[in-house]
Amino acid sequence: MLPAKNRLKLSHKIKNQLLGAQKVSSDKFRVIAKFKPDVFKVAISVSKKVAGKAVDRNRIKRIITESLRGQSNYKGQFLIIVNKNIAHLKKDEVKDKLFRLLDKLK
User: Fold this and answer.
1) Collapsing DSSP states into helix, strand and coil, what is residue 74?
2) pTM (2 decimals)?
3) Is 52 left (phi over 0), alpha (psi -120 to 50) or beta?
4) Can you give the residue ranges of every domain in the chain?
5) Could you give the C-alpha distances from 83 to 51, 77, 99, 105, in angstroms and in order?
6) Alpha carbon distance, N-terminus to C-terminus of the chain
7) Domain 4-105 belongs to what architecture?
8) Among the listed residues 98, 89, 103, 106, the one whose alpha carbon sits nearest the alpha carbon of residue 30
9) Splitting the chain (106 residues) into consecutive groups of 10 residues, what average pLDDT does each group show?
10) Cα dihedral 69/71/77/79 (nearest 10)
């Protein structure tokens, strides 16, 4: 789990926080990002339609947070929405796919 200072709270206010944000998507993820200096906050959203079991949803969130841990290349607020069940993928595969998307945003 990411530290509390790096977590973006998902609420009804999220729309206001990410107004005018850049969006990029692939078959596995959709990333909405608003770049801000000296801030790194992430929110991950996995719906029941993507992964029916809570175990899978939690594994997906864990894989994504572990792949983002310790990175310092990206600054801003990020909302990562998972489009397909990626619970069967390894951390390195998810990291590669996710960072390719984030590189498109720069």
Assistant:
1) coil
2) 0.84
3) alpha
4) 4-105
5) 9, 19, 16, 18
6) 25
7) 2-Layer Sandwich (3.30)
8) 98
9) 73 65 89 86 91 93 89 83 92 91 85
10) -50
